Amino acid sequence: MRFRGPPPPRILLNNVSCMRNAQTVLRDINVSVHDGAALVLTGANGSGKTTFLRMLAGFSRPSAGEILWNGHDIASPGVYQQYRLQLNWLSLKDAIKDKLTVLENVAWFEVLEGKSGRALPALELMGLGRLANEKPRMLSMGQRKRVQLARLLAIDRPIWLLDEPSVALDDEGVRLLEHIIAEHRKKGGIVFVATHLPIKMEDAMCLRLPPRFPRRKTFLDLIR
Ligand SMILES: Nc1ncnc2c1ncn2[C@@H]1O[C@H](COP(=O)(O)OP(=O)(O)OP(=O)(O)O)[C@@H](O)[C@H]1O
């Protein structure tokens, strides 16, 4: 009689290191991520959080180790084509086009995905329904971030890579962010979040990246 073991992780980082500018930024990272899981990346400025997300997105290659998706190295050409269609990337650059309306700025991503009908409900959930037909110059910083979150919902891919998703959001915006992350995970979605600000996520794994250089005295130490 054969016993089934636990399912293999959806994403596995196996002794991964990453160099930037000829210097090692990330060293020997090992992480297993299953469906429905969340990994929160924290650490000082420059510790490598964005680098970690870029590597998961396939924009930077590990200098050592491997990143496996469903047991396959994401760097393999055939695998990467499929893997990248699983990813939804929210970065500090919002890629909002000034000439399009707020709604078109979400719907445009949806059309690229071959989907339709999700953009307006997503904007409404983010509290931007009444601004849907306005130009983005009408938007505040926090509202622009909400447009990015609406895109996550409209595109609806399983693996979310979120770089500082709560920056500029008010309290209600952060609660909405926490809500959509929780709902996404309930459906089996995976969430990676790089953040300096606390975001409530049940049973999230946390990886605190060490500072890259020995700490030097800063202006704050001098005035204390
Ligand atoms: N394009 C680049 N070329 C070379 N080195 C880079 C590049 N971008 C970032 N780095 C270096 O990689 C290191 C990690 O940067 P990264 O942006 O991943 O840090 P972070 O933890 O996201 O920082 P922050 O909290 O400030 O957003 C930094 O020391 C930075 O100088």
Automatic annotation (TrEMBL):
Gene Ontology terms describing biological process: cytochrome complex assembly
PROSITE patterns listed in its UniProt record: ABC_TRANSPORTER_2
Alphabetically ordered keywords of this record: ATP-binding, Cytochrome c-type biogenesis, Membrane, Nucleotide-binding, Translocase, Transport
GO MF term list: ATP binding; ATP hydrolysis activity; transmembrane transporter activity
UniProt KW Protease keyword: no
Domain spans labelled ABC transporter: 11-220
SUPFAM superfamilies xref list: P-loop containing nucleoside triphosphate hydrolases (SSF52540)
Record InterPro entries: AAA+_ATPase (IPR003593), ABC_transporter-like_ATP-bd (IPR003439), ABC_transptr_haem_export_CcmA (IPR005895), P-loop_NTPase (IPR027417)
Source domain of life: Eukaryota
This protein's name: ABC transporter domain-containing protein
Organism of derivation: Spirodela intermedia (Intermediate duckweed)
